[in-house]
Prior knowledge:
It contains two helices and 35 strands. It has about 450 residues and is mainly β. The chain folds into five domains: about 1-120, Immunoglobulin-like (Sandwich); about 125-205, Sandwich (Immunoglobulin-like), CATH 2.60.40; about 225-300, Macroglobulin (MG2) domain (Immunoglobulin-like, Sandwich), CATH 2.60.40.1930; about 310-410, Immunoglobulins (Immunoglobulin-like), CATH 2.60.40.10; about 415-445. It starts with 14 loop residues before the first strand and ends with a helix.
Amino acid sequence: MTSGDGDVDVELGKTYYVLATLFDSSYVQTVNSFTVAGGKITLDPKEGTVDTTVKITGTSFSASSTIAIVLDGNAVPISSGDTRTTSAGAFSSSIVIPDSSAGSHTISAIVSDYEVSADFKVKPLAVMTPTSGAADSSVAVVGTGFTRRKEVTVYFNKTSLTTALADANGGFNTTFTVPKLAAAPYTVEFEDADKNLSALKFTITGAAPPPTTTPAPTTLPTTGINITPTKGLTGSEVVVGGVGFKDGATISVKWDDKEVASVKSGAQGIFVTTFKVPAGKSGDHTVSASDGAATQKATFTVEISVPSAPVTVTPVMGAEVKKGLAFEWRDVTVDSPPVTYTLQVAASQDFAASSIVLEKKDLADSEYAPTKDEISKLVGRETPYFWRVRATDSTGTDGPWAVAGQFFIPEPFRLPPWVMWVGIGVGVLVLLFIGYWLGRRSAYSY
């Protein structure tokens, strides 16, 4: 153009360059650049406990594009609202805050590989069951939103009763016994080492029942073992205690058929030792202790910790890939590392077995570049391909598939057959003309 302006389609987050030249000249007079900015999100509310519904409102994003929401790098499903932006690049979506530790967390909206973030503060919350009862009764507590892997102290009327260790997401489960106090409402506080606090009310409705008299045992205790806790994740620590085994015997503690600890028993065959839950399948496993003559068993349940769905990065939705096809997604953090990935490329959106054209399992990295042979099988299709990926932890637990993306690979340009024959014909004519011209020249030279 010699004057005026022109429209160009651009994408958020990318840098573009403008070059000015003299008319009908390849000489560049000046160069400038600009980065397309945009995308804004707001959170409502900006703080709350685990399971809080947060409304995310976005503006100035790419139009009619898929929305992905992540919290601290892990995908979070959209519970309600928009899953794609409007034609004006806006959206209103809601998520439910998953199990998370106390403090600030980053919520990001990703649209067409453009990411905008805002902070959400997770607050602690404890729930008691029941909230009233007699003195000396038992109360169960579930806590969320505390500091990860820190002890939480239970205070009843400002007196410490017990402690519980929060897990990697700041959650815990424990019980306590109601003190023998007068019937009245009392404050129960749950506070961790970082001063995160949740306070509740418990009403003592009556005095404790009279104690029952238990006669002292007249015989040695029978052989048995006890494990604490009885369930947890891979890598968690288990305490094993036993009684009634041989005095001074070597006690072998096994996880299924694998020895995980060995310890000497004391008087009355008492022993205590610890071990960490080995990597393996979730579900029930047998913990056994044996002195060579007597064997006692208990059951430990490995809980399922499902990996989150990966967030896909490239190729972006609807991309036309002309060269350098490569798949990339964000890393997934799991409670039972290491994590591996399964990648699938299919010719149909339902990923039916018959439509799978590429599948790679046990990928250690969050990316994969197909080989030349694999790419050659994808070239020349007019309809799109679809791709997805999922994470698997060391226990063999598969996470959900990522939101499927789609891409096109255009067929390489080829000249029509008639063009080739025309070129051959022209080449023959040129050779004949050159031969004729050389012959005429030779004749004149005589």
